[in-house]
């Protein structure tokens, strides 16, 4: 309304708005890391505890069917083992970064340290994948 009547908004409101914006922008990486911790931890736990059974008729003797129950676990397939290991490492790493976020040097140096640690963890996951692939 004030702008329509030719008045400028007070400078205090603009400063508070900039301060709030800076706080929200600074909170974004924390929220993304927290979401990553939650998602990877849940994925690792669900896959690690998952066990599926299937009962199939393998033969019919006379009039009685012979049934066999097949049970599958995540450890039966190397890709699922890698999935659980990678998600466990990623969730632990993101949790450590969240907890140590205040201990790391603030400012641009903090971003460089976190980016380098991200690259190291990505390299580690690639190595685990290659070892699991053989």
From TrEMBL:
It holds the Pfam family CASP_dom. It comes from the Eukaryota. One of its GO terms (cellular component) is plasma membrane. It is a multi-pass membrane protein. The keyword Manganese does not apply. Keywords: Cell membrane, Membrane, Transmembrane, Transmembrane helix. The keyword Cell membrane applies. The chain crosses the membrane at residues 30-49, 79-100, 112-131. It is found in: Cell membrane. Residues 30-125 form the Casparian strip membrane protein domain. InterPro entries: CASP/CASPL (IPR006459), CASP_dom (IPR006702). Belongs to the Casparian strip membrane proteins (CASP) family. Homodimer and heterodimers. This is CASP-like protein. It comes from Triticum turgidum subsp. durum (Durum wheat).
């Amino acid at each position: 309304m004030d702008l329509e009547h030719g008045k400028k908004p007070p400078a205090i409101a603009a400063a508070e708005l900039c301060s709030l914006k800076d706080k929200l922008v600074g909170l974004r990486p924390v929220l993304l890391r927290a979401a990553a911790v939650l998602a990877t931890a849940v994925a690792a736990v669900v896959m690690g505890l998952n066990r599926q059974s299937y009962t199939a008729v393998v033969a019919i003797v006379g009039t009685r069917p012979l049934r066999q129950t097949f049970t599958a676990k995540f450890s039966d397939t190397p890709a699922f083992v890698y999935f659980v290991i990678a998600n466990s490492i990623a969730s632990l790493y993101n949790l450590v970064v969240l907890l140590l976020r205040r201990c790391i040097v603030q400012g641009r140096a903090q971003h460089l340290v976190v980016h380098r640690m991200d690259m190291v963890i990505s390299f580690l996951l690639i190595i685990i994948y290659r070892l699991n692939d053989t």
